[in-house]
């Protein structure tokens, strides 16, 4: 609850956080110390700042625990598009991980990824051929990133790619890290059908780098909490909008 409160607001003073969560300031300092060690927040003179900002992203394992029902519903809405015998590129986003879980009964399936979290899940699934692109390991993503990973991805051609964005500004899909942008762009260039998963919180955020435009994707999957005007704007760009239940 503390991490979610801080990430939603960017930064919160300890006394305000204690009041909002309903615990003592001492408890906040103790819990924030654990979150700081995990790289999720940073404490500076009584101000707790979220590491996930326009310039950075939160740890992948932490993100995997956030809004699981929303991400599962979005994944299940997309899953019917990916048939048996397909190949699919999955980025390091937790939305892509949920798509993989939704494909558990779809096999044979070839999964191409740079994410160790995705790979660890895929290797336990029946009928999955796993291909991994090497590169520089990024601890925050638990994935390989950078130009080497991008070059490896461009050597393949997949039926589908599935990814998310840290933020959306107009038609621009954004992410805070250039080495992650290189991987996403390689996946887009190396796939036939491209899908972008965005929960409603992504439309209130921006990030440093633009890796694509909405129109680069065949379909955008959003959750039911995404405002109608945003859905209409996406559809107005000529992109199919899939709304999860």
From TrEMBL:
Protein purpose: Repressor of the lactose catabolism operon. Galactose-6-phosphate is the inducer.
A Pfam family of this chain: DeoRC
Protein name: Lactose phosphotransferase system repressor
PROSITE patterns, A to Z: HTH_DEOR_2 (PS51000)
Domain HTH deoR-type residues, every copy: 1-50
Gene: glpR_3
Repressor recorded as keyword: yes
InterPro entries, alphabetized: Carb_Metab_HTH_regulators, DeoR-like_C, DeoR_HTH, NagB/RpiA_transferase-like, WH_DNA-bd_sf
Domain of life, source organism: Bacteria
A GO term for molecular function: DNA-binding transcription factor activity
Entry keywords, A to Z: Repressor, Transcription, Transcription regulation
